[in-house]
Give the backbone structure.
Amino acid sequence: MGSSTDTARYRLILARRTGVPTQAVRGHVIGEHGDLAVNCASSTTVNGRAVRIPVQAIRAEMAARPGRIAAGIGRVRSGPAAAVVAALAFVLGVTDGVIELSAPRDGTYLGMPLHFSSGRPTVCLPRLDAGEKRDLAAVEAKLQAAYHHLCSTLKEMSAS
């Protein structure tokens, strides 16, 4: 759900900064949540047009957002509860469209945009620039190492 909440926040921030409704912003945050998030700035559009994205400023604002949410700001629109309700609508076939959820990729589960049609998902990874590809590869490697460590630890525990 982290990529879904991060994507909602990313779009909300860009909409506010560009003075458009949130629905006019198309963009994704993939990989993982928080500091492992990959903002797909190179494929983000506003009203169907490519725009310059102040990536570092957006990252800083997104990093500050959880504290604001904890204080009660924006909780419903782009918090975990809203992400769960949105995901259920897509998975149950009530709504068709794109939402970021965990999906398998090379043995690791990463937050990816999934296009749902009648409750059936298809991964629709956006175009990534070289930096975004590097960031996503780093997230994948970090998660694979964590999964490997966890599996090794669980095997050791079950053997004892």
Observations:
- The longest helix spans residues 130-159.
- Strands lie at 25-26, 29-31, 37-39, 45-46, 49-50, 97-105, 108-117, 120-123.
- Helices lie at 2-18, 55-70, 75-78, 80-91, 130-159.
